[in-house]
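Bumping with the actual sequence this time:
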Amino acid sequence: MLESVELEQRPLVVSALLSVIRNIWPEGWGPRTDMILSNCAFALLNQPTPTTILAIPKLLTDPHYRQAVLKHVADPAVQWFFHLYESWPARFREEAIAAPLNKIDKFLANPLPETPAQANWLRPLYSGAERET
């Protein structure tokens, strides 16, 4: 999912990923969840070898993996976020990542919507309308 994305396309990929997850599970989505998941996605997109969103839980919970990932991140905003993240007390960090990890874990376990209401974001994909090129 996060493999071989051109630099100029990365913001679009991150936005699309967050939009899908946010539309499936809108409850409990806030600025902190958005900030955590977007910085994780940007960090993973900067890796020399392709990776997927499967790495997000490890990125948030394993400091050694996080250090290895951040060695390949040149974006100062992403570096700043993870510097801030490391400065959070352990208890606050655990509380802050609970909601994002819950959503990512659910998405990884079952990436399809669970109810018809959650499937609203899929309708344009199956409407038969083609994109203009």
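The tokens above came from a reply further down the thread. Residues 121 and 129 are 14 Å apart (CA to CA).
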